[in-house]
Amino acid sequence: MPAGEMIDLVDERDVVTGTATISDCLEKGLLHRAVAVLVVRSNGEFLLQQRSKRDLWHPGLWTLSSTGHVKTGEAYGDAAARELSEELGISARLLQLNKRLLPPIRSGRLTEREWVALYVTRTDIPCSIDRTEVESVKEVAVPQLRRMFDEGSMTPDAVILLTEYLKHQKDVGARLLACL
Description:
This protein is of the alpha+beta class. It has a single domain, classed as Nucleoside Triphosphate Pyrophosphohydrolase (Alpha-Beta Complex). Helices cover 29% and strands 35% of the residues. It has helices spanning 22-28, 76-88, 142-151, 156-167, 169-179, and strands spanning 6-10, 16-21, 31-40, 46-51, 62-63, 66-69, 95-101, 105-107, 110-122, 134-140. β1 and β2 (16-21) form a beta hairpin. The relative contact order is 0.21. The mean pLDDT is 92.
């Protein structure tokens, strides 16, 4: 999303309180909505994206398959599907796992304060990445993912969301098979 695009501001209960640009949200640490999507391959590996090295927000770090902000008036699920399509060229059914208020996260002079809805899908659809937002993608198994946590090569929000996902991975796998 362009830095000047409007997004909803929300409170600690995720109730809309106004609107602001993405730039204002990041520069002033305003609470807003975001989505994250985790693509799980049939072999159990996770598809991760490396953020563009030109991005102001954690440039070059690894994160979930796709992430992004929820536009003004947009539903979380619609934003998740849009981001997955825009960033990776993937269209797939998504299962919402949870929604949580993340602690404020800094990157340089910017601060993210977000309610994040986490979605997951199981698909082997190949990627067609948007080179303006995504540097590269790779598939990783759990041991490699845990090493990436320790190395500091992942965004802080990705570490929080993936750690939570791994705690409930068996339950999520059963829900995925039932829903997708």
